[in-house]
Amino acid sequence: MEEDFQWADVTANEIIKRDKKSYVCSSGVSPSGVVHMGNFREIITSQLVTQALLDKGKKAKHIHYWDDYDRLRKVPANIPKNFEKYIGMPLSEIPDPFKCHASYALHFEKEVEKYLKKLGFKIEIIRHSEKYKKCVYADEIKKVLNEKEKIAEILNKYRQEPLEKDWWPINVYCEKCKKDSTKILSYDGEYEIKYSCDCGYTNTIDFRKIGIVKPLWRIQWPIWWHHENVDFEPGGKEHYNTSGGARITANEIFEELYKEKHPVDLKYDFIIIKGVGGKMSSSLGNVITLKEVLDIYEPQIVRYLFASTRPNTEFSVSFDMDVIKIYEDFDNTERVYFDEKQITNEKKLSKEKRIYELSYIGKIPKKIPIQPSFRHLTTLLQIYEGNIDKVLQEYHKKDVRIKERAKLVWNWLEKYAPDEMKFKVKDKIDIKLDDKEREALIKVREILKKERIDELNLHNKFYEISEEFGINPKDFFKVAYSVLIGKEKGPRLASFILEIGKSRVIRLLDQL
């Protein structure tokens, strides 16, 4: 087999060793609050591995489950405090605090789902609340109830204090108050459970008919894997880092219950908000959402960020000046793919091309797409005060990538760009100039009026003018920028003037 160097391909090769006709990759997130980019890392990790399997000619699918029958544990920072009354209820049974969806869970699920297609994801969505309410997992629940001693033995290996003798591997949501403040009174060994709730309600139910039983989350994993024949599911590093971590025990429980090898797993690290540090947390409110990222980054560049970074590596999603470099890095990888940039190291060349294949959405064209420079667009857009149609005219074509990238650049300028990157071309001269400075700028005006001049020659003229009028070149450039944009620095002056347009600069300098 041809050697692979990209992490998704390496993982796919491991999965293929299971030697099946088709493969199932899984991901899962609890919509307990804003679904942030740290959560999204699980989804895209599974998606890229699924794509790697498909590219190897294997039959594979990606199923993503929303663990929306999970209980509300605490109220996140952006949710009204009075939602504390719903703690202990399933997320799918709590009203939407923003009053735009049928439930609390659905609000946060849909906020992510509407962008997955834009990212080129082929994914099957499953809501656990629907499965549990329809009693789909009844037989698996019966199995874990009857083998709870074996499960407890695995968990107790890693505990300082053993589980209580009356411990059960499930929770029951009360039919009356809908909370999980219940106690199991008896189990008949088949499908009947008698429970009581702190609210005073007691009942005996058949969990094949009444879907109010939910396995504890360490046990839910094995049930899910077995029911859906899962071959791969990644997991956050917090589930591995300690002895007896959740994923470690889930793997052991699966093998004990089903006498099969647990699904291939892949540990992924945190995603950091640039300049803040620490992992993202919905409950604390320090999150970056997929929407916010797609307001700045093209969908294929979002894929590129993950395809080019090993999952077990922590990295930052940046909104500062690093955005420019990330776009440049992607464009560079694209040039490598189309052989417009040579790499002599065959291993690196193969890896870069594969990263591009996993990043690109849709069928890759035969010719390299237009690559409008992010940095250059920041200049053009500010010259034209956000008028994208005028920017398109500069490129002499209405290319979709230019238009979409321009929109994202403008978003970045408005929301995140540092002040030193921002400017506005003036229509009046509002600074005081001494005689030498005024005469030097008049000379610039005359050159622009009389000569057909390119960037290099104009740049050289600036030094000639500085010498002619006895002005330090640094001071000349400061004055020129101050007149044009009210700042002492700006884009390369000669190209900047030509981009603004000679006639527009001449009109300004006519005020001298």
Structure description:
- With 512 residues, the chain is mostly helical.
- It folds into three domains: 262 residues, HUPs (Rossmann fold, 3-Layer(aba) Sandwich); 149 residues, Arc Repressor Mutant, subunit A; 75 residues, Arc Repressor Mutant, subunit A (Orthogonal Bundle), CATH 1.10.10.350.
- The protein contains 20 helices and twelve strands.
- The strands form five sheets. Strands 1-2-3 form a three-stranded parallel beta sheet. A three-stranded antiparallel beta sheet has the order 5-6-7, with no helix packed on it. The protein has a two-stranded antiparallel ribbon with strand order 4-8.
- Helix 10 crosses helix 12.
- The longest helix is centred in the first third of the chain and has 19 residues.
- The protein is elongated and about 100 Å long.
- It starts with 6 loop residues before the first helix and ends with a helix.
